[in-house]
Amino acid sequence: MGAPRFDGPGFRTLNGLLPRRALLRGGLLLASAPAALAQGPGEAGEDLPPWMRSPGAGFSVYGQPGPQAQRVLRRPGANRAAPGNGVAWTPLEQLEGFLTPSGLHFERHHNGVPAIDPAVHTLRIDGAVRRPLDWRLADLLRYPQRSHLGFIECGGNSNAGWNEEPIQRPVGSFHGLISTSEWTGVPLRLLLDEAGVDAQATPWVIAEGADAFAMQASLPLAKLRADGLLALWQNGEPIRPEQGYPMRLILPGWEGVTQVKWLRRLTLSAEPLMARNETSKYTELQPDGRARQFTWAIGVKSLLTTPSHGQRLDARGTYQLSGLAWSGAGRIRKVEVSADGGRRWAEAALDGPVLPRCTTRFRAAWRWDGQPAVLQSRATDETGAVQPSRAALLAARGRNGYFHYHAIVSWGVDEEGAVRHVYV
Amino acid sequence: MGAPRFDGPGFRTLNGLLPRRALLRGGLLLASAPAALAQGPGEAGEDLPPWMRSPGAGFSVYGQPGPQAQRVLRRPGANRAAPGNGVAWTPLEQLEGFLTPSGLHFERHHNGVPAIDPAVHTLRIDGAVRRPLDWRLADLLRYPQRSHLGFIECGGNSNAGWNEEPIQRPVGSFHGLISTSEWTGVPLRLLLDEAGVDAQATPWVIAEGADAFAMQASLPLAKLRADGLLALWQNGEPIRPEQGYPMRLILPGWEGVTQVKWLRRLTLSAEPLMARNETSKYTELQPDGRARQFTWAIGVKSLLTTPSHGQRLDARGTYQLSGLAWSGAGRIRKVEVSADGGRRWAEAALDGPVLPRCTTRFRAAWRWDGQPAVLQSRATDETGAVQPSRAALLAARGRNGYFHYHAIVSWGVDEEGAVRHVYV
Question: Residue limits of the Moybdenum cofactor oxidoreductase dimerisation domain (chains A, B) (predicted)?
């Protein structure tokens, strides 16, 4: 069948990592010769598959994924004592590209998904405002709209990275609390200005959701006015119930807990609320025992989704490395990959569009020689921030952490081609 | 409640169209004062809605839109004599942003949706090649991947525009055979090169689908090699059955009939096939009775989705015009809007990202004074091509047309605020 072209002369290799121009320069020749050839459908010599022999299924009003056996699913992990408190993970290792289908967008709820009547629900802006105001969904449709195509990541995503031993789970069940959508809605600045706010006297906004937990978050007014959205649509259609229908607060690049679903109230305040989910949780316990509060912007981060934990390389040869990179500070500038646990790095190709505060798919080619290897990726964002090694993150943050883990992720490949999560 | 801020001094208006900087400068004050104020959930004076009084629904493995009454749906229109032959329209007037959820991506089938076993299905490249080859889905996963975020539009979309009288239908049931997704898969160039093609001797590729119609299209090899993809994923997950699972040909910017679903074969040929769907259909019958064949690239086009046919303006005041623009030749450079049937134009704001061969959402503010108006949009792409008026399109193409209609769309607003499709 001939050797894969990537193995040909003229390509310098770096511990098996192939130069970027090699990525799309040649194929792999993993095809086989047909058993029989025919000129067209139904002609002699061709055995048509059964699905070409009779008409297929009809049209549908709302499309669904294929049969169960082919379906890619979220993985719920709820608290048994409180079934509406938990998460459902996005199966990152089964996805490609940079978008997440709405049906696979991760879930994080504190007391389940409320069934809201959009004719009754209102958004109220109150507290220290010139005039408190209520808006219904129908009112909001008359306002200017704007879109943000970007990620939402839970501040607790990847928290198993703090464990003493590397957790042995698929990447989606370890890092899958990140998803990417187009969110469209009303710039919050317009609504805040109508209510009349005093940014000097009341720099805080307490956001509250209409779920049974009455989820609350204390947020700086400046962020809401800068790029906050009252989102009404996700990926073009009305937001799904589990993502905040009929309206959700979107704060580009900030951790998920701030992007309050089922938003019902924004209360202007001189002080933060010190609510449960901004004190006992989503904070960073430092080595000295004090907690750092209000770490809102997501740090620069990346990980390989293919190959990743639980997958197996079935033979020596060329493999495509594929992963996601993102930063709450802006665009991804570059992603580097390593096959030797971070000693040597090669630059990956970024698959466009590269958008601010959005996931970016990166790719690189790697030739596995059958020896043990450790695959890693390291992202740099447009501010120059570089994703830290796990050792550097632990040195800076200590051993009490639980939230905001964004260190380099390592996948070990053994001589059998098995891939598992390792620390290096 | 105070007047809408857009009406204040300092804004020059152009037949009610407000300057672009006005778009996000002020609000509309469509809110109302709350009936009662309370400090927090459950405190005296606040009547909590029922969905905050008990835990909500649990987690799900695959998310769905909300209850039926809130759901936005495709509108199938199949041939009664051949139920698998027809279309399902994307309800554009109910969507915002520029993406289409996979469940609402338009459908166009010739003999229904085949139920394909991905373990059996192969893509074959044959005909005038050095060596015919077959690839299974599992083989293809090892190849380099690439994404294209862009639109697919049926060459028959908007064909009611050729009618003598303006059709009275919602915009989605008139122009809704366009949808936008991220498609990810293998660059076709890699597979064609492995089979070994001679671009001089055999400049044509006959693509064939694995549906019961065995849908065929004759395509230039140069386009497949330039940017053709063998797509395996749509919006991150495996392609939906009705969109071509397990693999679909993607040709950025070209009409939908060329982007063969359920792709099973690419046959290299010296000549086009002259198949039914490239001779009797998807061609342009000229004024002199001859047909123009192979008009693949989608022309520059735009339309307003809000307001649009069937909607009603309920009072004088400021409205947000919102629509979509696209071109098969590249990026949208600008979109202009008119409120007087095309005599005067003002530039709309483009809501990013503005990507090549992708839909772009545009927006403008307009103050309705209660008088009759005719709302239009006109797109210009990066090649300088300008969307034609209906009169110009008819003058150039005659009265025999059925495909590739891309003229300016006009929505008439009467004194009652009713919006309907008109010709001007």
Answer: 294-402
